[in-house]
From TrEMBL:
Gene3D superfamilies: MFS general substrate transporter like domains (1.20.1250.20). Residues 43-328 form the Major facilitator superfamily (MFS) profile domain. One of its GO terms (molecular function) is transmembrane transporter activity. It comes from the Eukaryota. It comes from Colletotrichum spinosum. This is Bypass of stop codon protein 6.
Length: 328
């Protein structure tokens, strides 16, 4: 699930705040350490690429719901109200990921998150391939939502800790948009042109998820829970007193920004997924469009979102985040 980089980055960094990485940071002329960049150390190139692939898979999952919705309704012979559970069920997994995220980082680090989020995607894809009963399908989408939430927060926080994170986050969420463009295009073509069942699309998703697990696990293998805790302790310093979550969300100056950003993301994500999900059904039933052309409406929607996320970081640098958010 994702959003303009500025707002979503703030929400993600509040969920999982990562310290400035100094283990491999190059010193500046004064001898003080700098934050890591996307290409220093060299291994970060592969980590960034793996994060991009994970967000692409997240977009693939999110955009598939709308393209498959008419065919799920036909396959299971359910009403609009019942089939709408397809949209509600990922929320359960996403909320669970928000509750568990900090604890999982402390215990397992980014390596554990890499295995868990990609593992949830693989499990969900396998269940969907089997074309299970509708209640099991709903549970499968909950599992996918859990994987989406874990990957969304983990890789937003890690990328956001790198130098020039604004531009990098724009590209990261553009990768999410690429998945959103790719998903309805391929799903619609497989169903309408190749006359395949809706569940065959998840063979493609399974392949993407397997690559996701391999890429993330290999590149973040040394990012263990112990390393994460050491970085957190180093960033806090010996003189800093620990601050409770309640204090952070109610007292500190950042609390107002955190709550406003959370409200913005809540509304934005709801609109984003609803429009992207129901546009195909609307074009088929209300506008009486042809099946393939109706599916392409979803592709066009996600394509526009992708272009916006590529352009936004550069516009934000020129006009500032306040005007950028207001205009968008």
């Amino acid at each position: 699930m994702t959003v303009q980089p500025i707002a979503e980055t703030q929400a993600a960094e509040k969920a999982v705040e990562l310290p400035p990485a100094t283990e491999f940071a190059a010193p500046d002329r004064g001898g003080s350490p700098l934050r890591e960049t996307w290409h220093h150390p060299r291994s970060n190139v592969f980590r960034v690429a793996a994060c991009f692939w994970s967000l692409l898979n997240l977009g693939t999952f999110d955009a598939a719901y709308g393209a498959l919705l008419p065919y799920l309704q036909q396959s299971y012979s359910v009403s609009y109200v019942t089939v709408s559970l397809v949209f509600l069920s990922p929320l359960v997994g996403y909320v669970a990921s928000g509750v568990l995220n900090a604890k999982l980082h402390n215990n397992f680090g980014q390596r554990g998150l890499a295995i868990l989020c990609s593992g949830a995607h693989i499990l969900s894809a396998v269940i969907n391939i089997l074309k299970p009963p509708f209640p099991v399908l709903v549970v499968s989408f909950m599992i996918a939502g859990l994987g989406n939430g874990l990957s969304d927060a983990a890789w937003n926080a890690w990328i956001g800790n790198l130098e020039r994170s604004n531009e990098l986050l724009g590209y990261l969420h553009a990768a999410y948009g690429v998945g959103g463009v790719f998903s309805p295009l391929v799903a619609t073509a497989m169903i309408t042109r190749a006359a395949l069942a809706w569940n065959t699309f998840y063979y493609v998703v399974l392949g993407i998820s397997v690559v996701e697990m391999l890429a993330l696990t290999v590149t973040f293998w040394d990012h263990t829970g112990r390393r994460y805790r050491e970085q957190m302790a180093q960033s806090q310093g010996t003189d800093d007193k620990p601050v409770s979550m309640r204090t952070t969300l109610t007292t500190l100056p950042e609390a107002r920004i955190a709550w406003l950003s959370a409200l913005f993301v809540l509304i934005y994500i709801g609109v984003e997924v609803s429009v992207g999900g129901w546009v195909v059904e609307f074009m088929l039933d209300v506008r009486h469009g042809e099946a393939f052309a109706s599916g392409m409406c979803a592709t066009g929607y996600w394509l526009g979102m992708t272009l916006g996320r590529i352009i936004l970081p550069f516009v934000t640098r020129l006009i500032g985040p306040l005007w950028a958010v207001s205009v968008c």
